[in-house]
Amino acid sequence: MPSPHVRGVLDTSVIIDLERIELDDLPAEVAVSAVTLAELAAGPHATDDPAERARRQDRIQRVEAAFDPLPVDAAVARAYGLVFAAAISAGRSPRGRRAFDMLIAATAVAAGLPLYTRNSADLAELGGLVEVVQVT
User: Does pTM top 0.70 for this prediction?
Assistant: First the structure.
């Protein structure tokens, strides 16, 4: 089914699996958060497999060349407060590795764009703040 939106923010899970995703499932105009670039930059250092390290390094280079990332600025910081509060209210921790997902969601909130993810269940409590679109 074609994307219901013209624009949207792709989270890291979508970027990692981009080769396996139908492009019609994504909006025509896509953006990424600077947080996604940070996660991708850490990727090559998180594996001991040289072939996987090379694949991850190639991915970050391609993403850096293709996108001008949305920054983590004052608007994102304010939106993060809302995202953090929503997670706490739902009884879910916004800390640890999940903090990156929350910052990416805050980027989408600040930009006023839907968030495209492969892990929509992980962001279910944010429904009132940002539209979370599951990508299969």
Answer: yes
Location of structure tokens 């492009």:
23
Residue with tokens 């903090």: 99
Structure tokens at 81: 């407060």
Closest CA to 63 of 30, 20, 87, 27: 30
User: How many degrees, rounded to 5, is the angle at CA 39 between CA 61 and CA 125?
Assistant: 135
- Among 13, 54, 4, 56, CA closest to 32: 13
Q: Could you tell me the pLDDT band of residue 1, with boundaries at 50, 70 and 90?
A: low
Rounded Cα distance, 94 and 48, in Å: 29
Among residues of the chain, what percentage have pLDDT more than 90? 77
Integer Cα distance of 88 and 84 in angstroms: 6
Answer whether residue 43 shows pLDDT above 80: yes
Across 109-118, average pLDDT: 97
Of all residues in the chain, what percent are helix, strand and coil, respectively (each to 5)? Answer: 55, 10, 30
Classify 55 as helix, strand or coil: helix
Please choose, from the candidates 131, 124, 133, the residue with its C-alpha nearest in 3D space to the C-alpha of residue 87: 124
Q: What's at 4, amino acid-wise?
A: P
